[in-house]
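Good morning,

Both structures are done.
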Amino acid sequence: METIEAYFGRKHEELRLLNDCLKSPLDLIRPASVTEVVRCKFQLTAALRAEHAFHDWTITETAWSERPNAAGPFNFKYDYQRADLEVNGPSFYGREDEFTHETVYTASGMAAISALLLAYAQEADLLVLQGSYSETLEFVEGYAHHLQLVPLRQLQEGANGRTCSSRILLLDSCAAGDAFEETVRCSSPALDLVIFDTTCFSGGSGRIRRALGWARTWGVPVVMVRSHTKLDSLGAEYGRLGSAAFVHWEKNDPWIVGSRFSNLPAEMRNAVRLLGGAALPAHFPPYVGTSSYRALTEKRVAAIMHNSRRAFKQLKSILPGPTVEQFAHGLFVKLGSMQPLDEATARQAAADMSNDLSREGLPIRHAGSFGFDFAATEWCQSSATGGYSVRLSVPDLPTTLWDDVLQGVAEWWSAHQGRAAA
């Protein structure tokens, strides 16, 4: 359990890390409220972006200037509209001693996975676990017609009833926890490729390492796709940024010339170019890569995981029936209704609850993302059942304050559930 004093000390370290990246640092004081933490963090990241634009005014869509283009530890090289963007800098995964990877950066996580799926132009079965990100599935159904969606509960399913010669596993960090764990324990998986969406896992997560070790054991190529707007920006949403990392093994490297997938990295770069989905250099957080950044990120994610377990236990004990559902990654808690919600009522419930509790002074907002220093509410739809509910994104808050938020959420939801069911 983290005390409020320790929490504000840790937040001060995060703010100092951001402030130290400024060429003209601001005068910082130790924050005394969550509101001050959020305000100062977003002001500092805005100042970083503004300073980058002011000092690097020659950096445009057409690289006509000979001045070096950089953002903190990242260096960039490109010609026209970043179609050939080269990025040299630290890995967001921070495990360069365990594995290496060739990375293609994009303007968002969806830009990364959509370009990758289009670049893989062969017909294939795309195996998906329950809970996989709905927009990825929507993209496949609408635009990647060469891929046949195959819902799975266990990896062995469908191995003998395949419809295509190639099998690709979409291993999504949003997937149900038991399905994810069963998958990375499966022996002889008979896969041609794993596309691993790591967005909801911390870059240094043990689950990422475990999944990579499993794929490596069975000689399956892996491409990790990720949105860096979420857990990689110290809760400040520095800028829209995504990537696809083609993992290299020491032997039988799947991306070497002459191998089955040797052209996939180049084809993806071409897809990014033609779709206009290249990353913006200004969106690379300049504070990434240092030991302090990694330590602070790990502490933030650990606090969120602790708060998530606490949220599920407390809300489950207060709210009736199967109302509360926990996600395997620990970033959300889902609140269901005794009376089924549609999209409009779920949207309204998310907005009303956050607005009402915020007026009571609790650190909660209506926001469609996660990893913040405040709780966030948003509507969501189940990819398995199609039903609607309200998603509570778990924040990095001290335990006692988070307990106050949970009490407020439980009381609000119970009161409005009672009226809805009456």
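Second structure follows.
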Amino acid sequence: MEKKEFTGSLSIDLYECEEIAPPSRQEPSVRKVGMICCNLAVEYSDLRNFKSKTGIAMKKLEYELELVPSGASIDFVVYVDGVKQPGKSAKVCVVE
């Protein structure tokens, strides 16, 4: 990732499938239901250095998404390089 490509945010698509054994790739039974959008408390300079297969030096955004059931809702927690991002930084955008 180049500096001009880093916006300080992260978007993760959410999909659902009602199959008992969901497919390993997107098929007609898989549909997009929303997106998690998160503003990150990370600067471009904080991202890890990474070399591509062709040897080009780049930066890499490593993240984990944790889904925490809370009654009838789900809380989303985003970690970047093992550091929990500030509360309320993630929101869900539902696809109509």
